[in-house]
Structures are given as C-alpha cells and as structure tokens.
Amino acid sequence: MLRNQPSLSLDLALLAMPAVLAEARSLGVRVSVSIVDASGQLIHLAHMDGAPAPSRDIAHDKAWTAAGFGVATSSWEERLAGMPDSVRTGLSMRPRLALFGGGVPVRVDGASVGAIGVSGATAAQDEQCAQAGVRAILEALSQ
C-alpha cells in the first residue's frame, strides 16, 4: 500500500516567511530562515542582511531535523538527558542533525508536513521566530 504524505507548498512557505522575518525584526535580530517540506527538502530560504554567513546552513539543518523527527529541535536536550553517553555523542556527531532550538515542525492533523528553521540569534529567539511562521501557516490552513 502506498502512503499519501501531505506536505507544505510554496504558497504556504511564502505566507510564513514574512511572519518569521517580522518577528526577527521585532526582536532586533538578523537571521536566516529555511522552510522545508515534509521530506526535509528546501522550499524557501531567506538570509537577512547582516545575519551570520553560517546561519544559512544551520537554519536549513534545523528545519531538516525538525521535519524528519516531527519535533522541535529545542526538545532534544531533554530527550537526550536520559540516554546513554554513546547515544548522545553519536547523535550529536551526525551530519546535519541540529539538536538545539530554532527548528519547529509544522504539524497538521498530527502529521509533520514540513518545518521552519531559523538561525542567527539565540536559540530561544530563533525558535520564537520559527513559531511565528508556523502560526501563519496554521492560520492560513484554518480559513
């Protein structure tokens, strides 16, 4: 049997991006933003003037991690706390896994349909910006 996987569209990513950037501006931070579909493939990327150059790749890694696991990247510290050192070390050494705040999945009817990753500020600020984009998507879907 084939599985039908709902996924974010470019139109939804284009609705989310201004919300993320507006939140970053309100916080006075400069960030990069990556919006990915359900499989972690890039839909839309923005890099604010003055954002650190590495934040582009980090934002994408955060979005990819959040989409792949369906949980916010900020949850990993707590999730890993009770695991053996080998697991904590092994996961942290995996390329592309971002196990710190700033990646937020977009969940619709319990399924991860994509994610938003933000990098360039503190982990908490990055996550706050990503959440603004998620809210914009969910508001658009509820109309």
List the helices and strands and how they pair.
Elements: H1 10-27, E1 32-37, E2 42-47, H2 55-69, H3 76-81, H4 85-92, E3 103-108, E4 111-119, H5 123-142
Antiparallel strand pairs: 1-2, 1-4, 3-4
Give structural attributes:
143 residues; alpha+beta; Beta-Lactamase; 4-stranded antiparallel sheet; 5 helices
How would you sum up this structure, described in words?
The chain has helices spanning 10-27, 55-69, 76-81, 85-92, 123-142; strands at residues 32-37, 42-47, 103-108, 111-119. The mean pLDDT is 96. Helix 1 (10-27) packs across helix 5 (123-142). It has a single domain (10-142), classed as 2-Layer Sandwich (Beta-Lactamase), CATH 3.30.450.150. It contains 5 helices and 4 strands, in the order H-E-E-H-H-H-E-E-H. The protein is of the alpha+beta class and 143 residues long. It has a 4-stranded antiparallel β-sheet.
What is the CATH H-level superfamily?
Haem-degrading domain
Query: How many structural domains in the coordinates?
Result: 1
State mean pLDDT (0 to 100 scale).
96
Strand content: 15-25%
CATH topology: Beta-Lactamase
Question: Shape, please?
Answer: globular
Largest sheet: 4 strands, antiparallel
Strand order of the largest sheet: 2-1-4-3
Query: How large, in whole angstroms, is the Cα Rg?
Result: 15 Å
Note the gap between the termini.
32 Å
Number of strands: 4
Number of helices: 5
Which parts are unreliable, with pLDDT below 50 for 5 consecutive residues or more?
none
**CATH architecture title:** 2-Layer Sandwich
Could you give the order of the helices and strands? HEEHHHEEH
